[in-house]
């Protein structure tokens, strides 16, 4: 008798879970190891482990909301958060040390030369911009972090290729408020691998915030200031809550008191304009104020209403001023909302810039800037932005005239302001689209994108300071005018063929060189303004195609 043989057994399959990791896939240039330290990468890994999935959820919410608006569901003040708006008791944390007086803030990228110029400018605050004023090349992202690290420690200097040396000489430098990239942007030189083995590009927001915070928070506190941030492109209070949770975790991680971080949120999207109270509430332990991000706000209007018919078509970009109805409603509501909650209201940036070679251009710029800042100061704003050091005296004079010796005017409540949803959506301006307006959009769009591909994020074009936000207006208007079958004031239909002719004219007239990127820029402009589909941001595909370096 044979004893039956037991069937062979197979060991159960086991899934070996590993901890999340972050890989550096970009090349390590000179001194990059001082920023991409093991401690910094561990912190970035933990930020992504805790918050990357929620970031993706919030981005999905954006797409859903944009679809709803595009299909006729106008944004409204939320019923489910009415209790927050109606509760008069709560206040935000307010100004941190060094943020008590913000009457003039200078904005700009974080390369060494621009960092030194900003710190020597005499402004009260410097918006150190890793977002719209920075082309996110790998060199700019990490090089900007090096500039900030060195500046905070008093170690920054720069010698130009021509041999000119730049140093920080100001006795009192501006308080630094750093602006990380928005939630929608990725950092493709860092790769996050989660516990399941899924791989994805790192978040630009978490990368910029995490590196700056870990390296500089304690040094900033020791200098009598603190880790302060401008938060860009928010579209909802849920996105604000995500940032607040990031701040709380970061404070715990390095062992500093809860509420040390201060954030100023840019209200620069249409959905966010309907949730200002709620955004302040979610960030209340960390919030210093709101900013009226005018150029991105106009872009957001166009993006959300691009397919809703002639009533929602704006005229030439130059005609969409701060005094048109929807912009007045948005800024007055911002001031009222901020001051009711003890928050600062910071005004936006005039695009006009002076020319040290042309006195007439400078005189026109100063006149426009003075009028813009006078309006903001009289409306109740506590401070404003400029993009050039030569504009600081003009802007400061207008705020000095209203503030005097006071640091701010938060006590001015603007109870006279009553803004409805209809006011925020009143896009009637009564001006035509001109042939020159179409041509200007094509010219500015191509010239800016060309500079962006070469690594420049803030560019003077036709005596105006252009960045990613103003370029977005230019290309999105062209797309909308074509798809809404608009004509110029002389009856010319705005068609793809018409715009192609303008692209050819621009390429024929711009100064060319062997190293320029105008053909690439024209290709990108066609993609984002002439395509059937509307890309949410012009930089998304261009970033992957032109700015990502192989390690």
Instruction: Indicate the structural class.
Output: alpha/beta
Shape: globular
**Count of distinct strands:** 15
Helix tally? 18
Percent helix, as a range, is 40-55%
Largest sheet: 8 strands, parallel
Mean pLDDT: 95
Poorly predicted residue ranges: 1-16
| Rg (C-alpha, Å) | 24 Å
Distance between the termini: 68 Å
How much strand? Answer: 5-15%
**Sheet with the most strands: spatial strand order:** 6-3-2-13-12-11-10-9
Short synopsis of the structure:
The protein contains 18 helices and 15 strands.
Which properties best describe this structure?
single chain, 551 residues, alpha/beta, eight-stranded parallel beta sheet, three-stranded antiparallel beta sheet, 18 helices, 44% helix, disordered N terminus
Topology readout:
Layout (H helix, E strand, L loop, with lengths): L20 E4 L13 H33 L11 H5 L17 E5 L3 H8 L5 E5 L8 H15 L4 E3 L5 E3 L7 E5 L6 E8 L5 E5 H19 L5 E4 L5 H18 L7 E6 L2 H4 L2 H7 L4 E6 L1 H12 L19 H16 L3 E6 L9 H21 L3 E4 L5 H12 L17 H4 L10 H19 L5 E3 L2 E3 L1 H16 L12 H14 L8 H12 L9 H9 L4
Parallel strand pairs: 2-3, 2-13, 3-6, 9-10, 10-11, 11-12, 12-13
Antiparallel strand pairs: 1-7, 4-5, 7-8, 14-15
Helix pairs in contact: 1-5, 1-6, 4-5, 6-8, 9-15, 11-12, 14-15, 14-16, 14-17
């Amino acid at each position: 008798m044979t004893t039956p043989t037991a069937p062979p057994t197979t060991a159960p399959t086991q899934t070996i879970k590993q901890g999340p990791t972050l890989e550096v896939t970009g090349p390590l240039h000179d001194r990059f190891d001082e920023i991409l330290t093991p401690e910094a990468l561990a912190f970035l890994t933990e930020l992504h482990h805790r918050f990357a999935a929620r970031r993706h959820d919030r981005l999905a919410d954006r797409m859903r909301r944009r679809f709803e608006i595009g299909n006729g569901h106008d944004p409204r003040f939320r019923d489910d958060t009415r209790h927050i708006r109606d509760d008069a008791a709560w206040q935000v944390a307010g100004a941190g040390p060094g943020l008590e007086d913000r009457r003039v803030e200078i904005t700009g990228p974080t390369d060494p030369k621009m960092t030194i110029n900003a710190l020597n400018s005499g402004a009260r605050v410097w918006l150190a911009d890793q977002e719209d004023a920075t082309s996110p090349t790998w060199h700019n992202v990490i090089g900007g972090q090096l500039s900030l690290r060195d500046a905070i420690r008093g170690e920054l200097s720069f010698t130009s290729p021509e041999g000119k040396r730049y140093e920080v000489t100001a006795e009192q430098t501006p308080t630094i408020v750093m602006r990380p990239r928005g939630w929608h942007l990725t950092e493709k030189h860092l790769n996050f691998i989660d516990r399941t083995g899924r791989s994805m590009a790192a978040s630009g927001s978490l990368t910029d915030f995490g590196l700056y915070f870990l390296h500089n928070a304690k040094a900033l506190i020791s200098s009598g200031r603190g880790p302060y941030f401008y938060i860009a492109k928010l579209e909802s209070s849920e996105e604000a809550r995500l940032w607040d949770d990031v701040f709380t975790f970061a404070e715990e991680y390095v062992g500093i008191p809860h509420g040390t971080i201060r954030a100023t949120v840019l209200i620069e999207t249409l959905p966010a304009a309907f949730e200002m109270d709620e955004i302040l509430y979610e960030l209340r332990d960390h919030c210093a104020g709101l900013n009226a991000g005018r150029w991105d706000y106009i872009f957001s209007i166009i993006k959300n209403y691009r397919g809703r018919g002639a009533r929602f078509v704006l005229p030439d970009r130059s005609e969409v001023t701060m005094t048109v109805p929807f912009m007045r409603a948005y800024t007055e509501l911002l001031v009222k909302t901020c001051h009711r909650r003890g928050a600062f209201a910071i005004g936006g940036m005039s695009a006009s810039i002076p020319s040290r070679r042309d006195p007439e251009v400078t005189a026109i710029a100063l006149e426009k800037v003075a009028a813009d800042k006078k309006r903001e100061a009289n409306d109740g704003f506590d401070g404003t932005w400029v993009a050039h050091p030569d504009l600081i005296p003009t802007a400061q004079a207008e705020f000095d005239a209203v503030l005097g010796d006071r640091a701010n005017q938060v006590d001015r409540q603007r109870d006279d302001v009553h803004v409805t949803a209809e006011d925020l959506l009143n896009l009637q301006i009564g001006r035509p689209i001109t042939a020159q307006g179409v041509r200007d959009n094509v010219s500015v769009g191509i010239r800016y994108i060309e500079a962006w591909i070469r690594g420049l994020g803030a560019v003077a074009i036709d005596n105006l300071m252009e960045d990613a936000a103003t370029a977005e207006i230019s290309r999105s208007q062209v797309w909308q005018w074509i798809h809404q079958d608009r004509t110029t004031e002389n009856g010319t239909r705005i068609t793809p063929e018409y715009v192609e002719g303008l692209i050819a004219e621009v390429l024929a007239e711009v100064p060319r060189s062997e190293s320029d990127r105008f053909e690439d820029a024209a290709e990108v402009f066609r993609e984002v303004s002439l395509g059937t589909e509307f890309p949410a941001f012009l930089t998304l595909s261009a970033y992957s195609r032109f700015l990502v370096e192989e390690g």
